[in-house]
Amino acid sequence: MRRKILIFSIVLILVSVGVTSFISIRATMNNFESVNQTTLENYGNLINKAIEEDYVRNIVPDYSAFAIDFASQINERVTFIAKDGKVLGDSQAGAAYVNMENHKYREEVKQALTGNVGFSVRTSGTFNVKYVYVAVPLNHKGEITVITRLAMEIDQVEIINDYIIKNSLLSALVGVILAILMSLLYTGRITRPVRTILAATSKIADGNYNERIFVKSGDELEKIAIKINDMAEKLGHTITELSDSNSKKLSVLYSMKEAIIAVDNEFRVILVNNAAKKMFGLSDQSVGEYLLRSIRSSQLHDTFKKVVSEKFIGEQDVEFPGGRIYKIKTVYITDEYSNKQLGIMALIEDITEFKKMENIRREFVANVSHELKTPLTSIAGFVETLQAGAAEDPALRSRFLDIIAIESARLKRLIEDILIISDIEGGREPKLSGKIDVKEAIAQTISAIAPIIEEKKAVIVQDYDAEDIEIEGNPDRFRQMMVNLIENAVKYSENGKQVTVSAHKKFNRIHIVVKDQGYGISEEHLPRLFERFYRVDKSRSQMAGGTGLGLAIVKHIVHLFEGEIYVESKIGVGSEFTIII
Q1: I need a surface site. Which of 83, 328, 518, 540 has the fewest CB within 10 A?
Q2: Residue 318 and residue 314: Cα distance in Å, rounded?
Q3: pLDDT class for 459, splitting at 50, 70, 90?
Q4: Alpha-carbon gap, residue 245 to 233, rounded angstroms
Q5: Any idea where the domains of the chain sit in the sequence?
Q6: Which residues lie below 8 Å from residue 94, measured CB to CB, with a gap of 6+?
Q7: pTM value?
């Protein structure tokens, strides 16, 4: 209020003084410019008469000399210009006038070429000095022969201008100073309660809702102070309740394992929870930035745009670069009072592993169905053949029953392998744990598959450390792992080939290696070798009686022992499986 009164007083004086000063200054300046224009025009006419006398006496004027001579007499710049714009002489340029550019399109020259006196105020393109120009045409025998241009430096006008302004505004300045002093004295008394209220409300605005105002002015200001005190008390209670409510809501949002990102209608981030920060590498500085600049994910940005353009609210699966798949559920953010749309919120869940497991389960079911169907079809076919009368032929019956027995055994092995994988993956593995003597367990494994070894005439070489080698875990699973590896090495090698089984302790870790001299595996198959039902050579696998689950079981058992398995192989050389526990 004090400032308003003070400003009003100053503005009132300044406006009144300014208007009168402007009118006075403008009138004086117009008169000054008119007088100087007339003076320059008179000089121009006198100079033209002197030149015209030379014309009469058939003397060709030396315009360069004339310009310098006349300029020294009138103390102004003098320039002679031909009607085609060429400079004939200039008092400031001297002999260098020949290098001056054509003046035909100078404003004052264009006016003079029409037969009138030209006038303009501008900065000289040649000397970079501001001038008042007057161009007077010389009309000899009905034709313009030359234009005499005179120029006065504008500094002369500005000096007078400053003088006029200083004198005109001096009285106004004195009046303003007096008005300010009187306003300060008057407004100081009436605005003191206002300043008290303002100081208190500033503290309340900063969050200090316990601040109170004490004004005893006996007028409306005292009533305002009382109302503000009541408002501060109610506001404090409301803010506390809202803060508690928001804290609880934000705590829920930030503790969710799903990522939450909210953007406004211009795609600027307004909220990200901890899961979103971790998932997309965001930080608190991302709030307020544009989504595409913060996350640099065109897929997520396009998802939000789709919500806006197609009004698509719901959930969708979006694949990101690198193979990550996210389930994105989107909703509009609306104001609960005006129902105005404020932005979009997305709940994002990483379902990459879920999709991968879903695909694995789908492939597993398809593969199991196929693998079970093959022996069952074979068994059913031979049973039907026997029922149709083949049973009467002892040789044929015996052959068919042998095949049925083989297919039944294959079916049994397949079901057993499926159950093993199911138990391990489902966490139904028996809790058997104890010390396993690695060398003894491998020796037992080799004895158990002795018939297969003898049939293939394989040479088994065992290489162990002299000291005992022991690990913790389920002995049955360990032997099953070794059976699968050694049996594969024997089966997928030609007769009479060597299979080396070694176990050594290195840096407090057990390295178990099964190396064969078999057919070998091409490099393209190695990444998928441990997948269920993946076969490098299906015909050879079926001939060997494999179920396609052996190496998948090996990998699962290795993980039960918290170990790692690696494979190296070359076609025609053999394969080497290394387990590190």
Answers
A1: 540
A2: 13
A3: very high
A4: 19
A5: 2-160, 194-247, 256-350, 355-424, 430-580
A6: 64, 68
A7: 0.41
